[in-house]
C-alpha cells in the first residue's frame, strides 16, 4: 500500500496532504538541524500536532480517521521512504520499477504489472531516492546521473536521471529474500523435482564446477544460494560480486564486492582484481555472482588450478549459447591463445551448465542440466542429462516434468553417484513393484 492507496485515491485528501506537507517543510526549516535528530515516533507526534493546527487554521473538512491517514502518509514522507515503503516491506514484491513519477510497475511471482503511483512529481521521486542513497554515501545529480548501489537489506538499486533519462527518473529496485530459499523450498515451488535435486546435490558436494545460465530475473541468484546448502560446512567459500547479492547459508563465507570509480574516475576495484586476490585467501571454492567481463579468464583458471567446486552465473539463453558467451567474453578480455586452446580450457574447467528460465506464467524452472564432456572435432562436447517439459492434463491444468535422457554423468567426480544409479536400475529390474529411486544423502 503506497501513500495514494493509503488515502483511498481521493483527490481531496491527496491535496490536503500536499498542502500540509508544504506547511511541515516550512516548520522543519525553522527547526533546522534539531529535526534530523528526532526518532520516527517523535516525527509522527510532530506531524500529528502540526496537522491538527493546520486543519484548524485552514478549516479543512476532514474527520478523525482521515486525519490519521494523512498523518501516517506524511510520517512516511518525512521519516521513511514515502510511496516505496510498503512495497519494500512486502515480501511478495520482487522488483519495483519507476518510469517517471506517474508510472510505477511491480513484479510479484514473476509477473510484472502496474501499481498506483503515490508520487506527485519527478522531484518527489528524486527526494525519496536521495534519501535511500544518503546513508550509502552515493551522489545523484546532473554530474553523476547514473547510480548503481546495494541497499542495506541486500537489495539492488539502479537510478538514471536527466539528461540521460528523457521521461523523468528511471528507478529499478531488485529485492532479495532475507532468508535464502533452500533446495527443498525450490522443489516445493516446482523449480525442479527430486531426481534433479539429487543430481545437483551430488554435483555440488562432489566439487563439480557449475555455471548457472539464464535470462534476467530467471532465478539464477536464488538457485546459486540454494546450491550453497550442499557445500560441506568444513570448506571456505569466497564470493566475488559486482554488487553483493548472494546470501549463502554457510558458516564460512568471505564476501567481496567490487568498487566503482569515484567522482574523479579513480579508486575502481574490478571483479577481476578481486577474483585474483581471492585466490590468495585460501579458498576451497570461489563463487562469482555474475560473469560478465574479463574476470571469465581468471574464473576458468581458478577452476582449472585446484579450486574445484566453484560456481558462477551468466546471462545466456541455452547451454550452447552459454559456452559461446564464455568464449566471447574471454576473447574480448584479450585471451592469449588460439580458439582451440580456449575451448579446451573451458571444457576442462566446467563440469555442468544448469539452464534456468522464467516461463510465460512467471514460474521459474530449471530447464535443463547439461554436462560438459570434453572436446571433439574442435567443438566443446555436451550431453543433456535432464530436460524440462510442460504438459496439460485433461482438466486443463498445466504440469511440469523433468525427463531423464537415460544418460549417466561422464565426470569421474560423480563415480559414486553413477554407481548408485546403476545399482538402483538393477534393483528396479529385479523387483519392478518397488520404486528403485529414493533420496541419497551426499552431504559430508
Automatic annotation (TrEMBL):
Question: SUPFAM superfamilies given for it?
Answer: P-loop containing nucleoside triphosphate hydrolases
Question: A Pfam family this protein belongs to?
Answer: T2SSE
Q: Where is the composition biased (Gly residues)?
A: 435-444
Query: What Gene3D superfamilies has UniProt attached to this entry?
Result: 3.30.450.380, P-loop containing nucleotide triphosphate hydrolases (3.40.50.300)
Q: Where is this region: Disordered?
A: 425-444
GO molecular function terms here? ATP hydrolysis activity
> Which residues are in the Bacterial type II secretion system protein E domain?
78-356
Q: Which family does it belong to?
A: Belongs to the GSP E family.
Q: What is this protein called?
A: Pilus assembly protein CpaF
Organism of derivation: Alcaligenes pakistanensis
Amino acid at each position: 500500500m503506497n501513500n495514494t492507496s493509503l488515502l483511498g485515491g481521493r483527490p481531496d485528501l491527496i491535496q490536503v496532504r500536499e498542502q500540509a506537507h508544504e506547511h511541515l517543510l516550512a516548520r522543519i526549516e525553522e527547526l533546522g538541524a534539531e529535526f534530523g535528530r528526532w526518532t520516527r515516533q517523535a516525527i509522527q507526534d510532530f506531524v500529528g500536532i502540526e496537522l491538527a493546527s493546520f486543519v484548524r487554521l485552514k478549516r479543512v473538512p476532514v474527520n478523525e480517521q482521515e486525519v490519521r491517514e494523512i498523518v501516517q502518509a506524511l510520517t512516511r514522507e518525512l521519516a521513511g521512504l514515502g510511496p516505496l515503503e510498503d512495497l519494500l516491506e512486502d515480501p511478495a514484491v520482487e522488483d519495483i520499477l519507476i518510469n517517471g513519477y506517474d508510472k510505477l510497475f511491480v513484479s510479484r511471482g514473476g509477473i510484472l504489472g502496474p501499481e498506483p503511483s503515490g508520487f506527485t512529481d519527478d522531484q518527489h521521486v528524486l527526494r525519496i531516492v536521495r534519501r535511500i542513497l544518503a546513508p550509502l554515501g552515493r551522489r545523484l545529480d546532473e554530474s553523476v546521473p547514473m547510480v548503481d548501489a546495494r541497499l542495506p537489506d541486500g537489495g539492488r538499486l539502479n537510478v538514471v536521471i536527466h539528461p540521460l533519462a528523457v521521461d523523468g527518473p528511471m528507478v529499478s529496485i531488485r529485492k532479495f529474500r532475507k532468508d535464502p530459499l533452500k533446495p527443498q523450498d525450490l522443489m516445493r515451488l516446482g523449480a525442479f523435482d527430486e531426481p534433479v535435486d539429487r543430481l545437483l546435490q551430488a554435483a555440488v558436494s562432489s566439487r563439480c564446477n557449475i555455471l548457472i545460465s539464464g535470462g534476467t530475473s530467471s532465478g539464477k541468484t536464488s538457485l546459486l544460494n540454494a546450491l550453497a546448502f550442499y557445500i560441506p560446512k568444513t570448506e571456505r567459500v569466497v564470493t566475488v560480486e559486482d554488487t553483493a547479492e548472494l546470501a549463502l547459508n554457510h558458516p564460512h563465507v568471505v564476501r567481496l564486492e567490487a568498487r566503482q570509480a569515484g567522482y574523479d574516475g579513480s579508486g575502481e576495484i574490478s571483479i577481476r582484481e578481486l577474483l585474483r586476490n581471492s585466490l590468495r585467501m585460501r579458498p576451497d571454492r570461489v563463487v562469482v555472482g555474475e560473469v560478465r567481463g574479463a574476470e571469465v579468464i581468471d574464473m576458468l583458471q581458478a577452476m582449472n588450478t585446484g579450486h574445484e567446486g566453484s560456481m558462477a552465473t551468466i546471462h545466456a539463453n541455452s547451454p550452447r549459447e552459454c559456452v559461446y558467451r564464455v568464449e566471447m567474453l574471454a576473447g574480448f578480455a584479450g585471451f592469449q591463445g588460439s580458439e582451440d586452446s580456449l575451448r579446451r580450457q573451458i571444457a576442462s574447467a566446467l563440469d555442468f551448465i544448469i539452464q534456468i528460465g522464467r516461463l510465460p506464467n512467471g514460474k521459474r524452472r530449471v530447464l535443463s542440466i547439461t554436462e560438459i564432456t570434453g572436446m571433439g572435432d574442435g567443438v566443446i562436447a555436451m550431453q543433456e542429462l535432464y530436460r524440462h517439459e510442460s504438459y496439460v492434463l485433461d482438466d486443463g491444468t498445466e504440469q511440469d516434468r523433468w525427463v531423464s535422457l537415460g544418460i549417466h554423468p561422464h565426470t569421474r567426480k560423480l563415480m559414486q553417484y553413477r554407481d548408485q544409479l546403476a545399482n538402483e536400475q538393477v534393483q528396479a529390474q529385479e523387483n519392478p513393484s518397488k520404486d528403485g529411486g529414493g533420496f541419497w544423502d551426499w552431504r559430508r
